[in-house]
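Please decode residue identities from the backbone states below.
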């Protein structure tokens, strides 16, 4: 299942341990730190323990999700830009990956409509290899050097089902409505123009119609 990862599943990352770490994000599932790896700036993602779970079960779940995210990051790179994975610490449930310098798409998309169209093209490329991101938001894309970098593949999975791809788009559209409500229609139209897969867009309309008649 994880055979495509050619790095190291390790139990102590001496290159990162002791490096100055600055927390840049704290969520329910993971903490993100800016640190260094072999002299390079990295993001260290650490999956946090869930004290309400049995310890052994918690370790298995976090290990599985850590490995899955690494593999998803690497496979997604066949279609889109993602951070390089440098190291994986399975004892601490940590992934050390490339630090991408730049703003989140959320911070600039309202002023740069063309980025929404480019995002549509990139999501189409990802769907063309049957990868479903699972958490497609403007916070999970970083803009750097004129390129879009996708992050946070913890919920990603593979599927060739048109409906799964449509639901991925539905998640993104809902994010536009809530986070960019003033201009969401314009951004969504640009995104769809870039995405340009009528089968998936028609399936999304079908999903919307089903929801109306429940």
């Amino acid at each position: 299942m994880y055979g495509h990862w050619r790095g190291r599943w390790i139990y102590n990352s001496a290159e990162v341990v002791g490096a100055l770490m600055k927390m840049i994000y704290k969520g329910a599932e993971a903490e993100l730190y800016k640190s260094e790896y072999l002299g390079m700036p990295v993001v260290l993602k650490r999956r946090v323990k869930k004290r309400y779970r049995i310890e052994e079960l918690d370790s298995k779940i976090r290990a599985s999700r850590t490995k899955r995210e690494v593999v998803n990051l690497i496979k997604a790179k066949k279609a889109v830009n993602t951070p390089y994975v440098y190291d994986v610490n399975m004892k601490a449930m940590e992934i050390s990956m490339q630090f991408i310098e730049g703003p989140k798409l959320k911070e600039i998309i309202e002023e740069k409509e063309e980025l929404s169209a480019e995002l549509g093209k990139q999501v189409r490329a990802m769907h063309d290899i049957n990868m479903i991101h699972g958490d497609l938001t403007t916070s999970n894309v970083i803009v750097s050097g004129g390129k879009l970098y996708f992050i946070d593949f913890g919920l990603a999975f593979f599927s060739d089902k048109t409906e799964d791809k449509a639901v991925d788009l539905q998640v993104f559209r809902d994010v536009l409505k809530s986070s960019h409500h003033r201009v969401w229609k314009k951004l969504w139209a640009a995104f769809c123009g870039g995405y340009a897969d009528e089968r998936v867009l028609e399936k999304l309309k079908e999903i919307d119609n089903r929801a109306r008649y429940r």
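Observation: Helices lie at 55-76, 105-108, 113-128, 162-179, 184-195, 198-212.
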